[in-house]
């Protein structure tokens, strides 16, 4: 079930605006992570009782759906790429990577919930269209592969620092140690190389 695919009647005349619920949910997730996002916490920040939210949502899962799409919709870099007259797939995915690196909780949510909000659908539609126009034999499958790579890259991006700082035992892994000592690529540079390998530009 998803917030975006479930119809619900608004039973209260002064129901909380879904945009307010989404905004507060993003703030809680950015500040406290997924564990900090509860119906009670959102209700408190919106100035209503928890029962007051249930005219708009079915439960905590809806909060994640709303937050996920709201955060993407507020991202200026992603919006710039989506709105371009000549959109570029790589730059779109790099902007998406930066978005996920900024909102790391989104990677955890995406691991469990397929996004169906309007902002995610805009990005998905553009990806599929660009891949189809580029001649991909399986545009949707390729879109899944690229998205999964971006999500994984964003999730592990913070590890880049410790990868450089921690020594490698040259006796146990001599080739790895030698290569790592001369390697200084950033997480975004590695992302771009990976994208080029997964779907080379024509």
UniProtKB/TrEMBL annotation:
Gene Ontology BP annotations: negative regulation of DNA-templated transcription
DNA-binding region of this protein: 38-57
Keywords: DNA-binding, Transcription, Transcription regulation
Domain of life: Bacteria
UniProt cross-references to Gene3D superfamilies, sorted A to Z: Tetracycline Repressor, domain 2
Protein name: TetR/AcrR family transcriptional regulator
A Pfam family recorded for this sequence: TetR_N
Every HTH tetR-type domain range: 15-75
Gene Ontology MF terms: DNA-binding transcription factor activity; transcription cis-regulatory region binding
PROSITE patterns: HTH_TETR_2
UniProt keyword DNA-binding present: yes
Regions crossing the membrane: none
């Amino acid at each position: 079930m998803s917030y975006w695919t479930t119809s619900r009647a608004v039973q209260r005349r002064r129901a909380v605006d879904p945009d307010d619920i989404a905004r507060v949910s993003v703030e809680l997730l950015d500040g406290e992570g997924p564990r900090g996002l509860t119906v009670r916490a959102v209700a408190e920040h919106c100035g209503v009782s928890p029962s007051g939210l249930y005219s708009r949502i079915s439960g905590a899962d809806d909060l994640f759906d709303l937050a996920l799409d709201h955060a993407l919709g507020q991202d200026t870099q992603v919006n710039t790429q989506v709105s371009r007259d000549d959109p570029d797939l790589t730059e779109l995915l790099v902007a998406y990577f930066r978005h996920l690196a900024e909102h790391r909780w989104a990677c955890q949510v995406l691991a469990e919930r397929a996004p169906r909000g309007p902002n995610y659908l805009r990005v998905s539609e553009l990806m599929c269209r660009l891949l189809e126009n580029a001649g991909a034999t399986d545009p949707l499958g390729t879109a899944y592969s690229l998205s999964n790579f971006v999500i994984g890259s964003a999730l592990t991006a913070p590890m880049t620092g410790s990868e450089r700082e921690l020594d490698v035992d040259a006796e146990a892994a001599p080739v790895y140690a030698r290569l790592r000592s001369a390697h200084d690529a950033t997480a975004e540079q590695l992302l771009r190389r990976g994208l080029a390998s997964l779907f080379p530009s024509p």
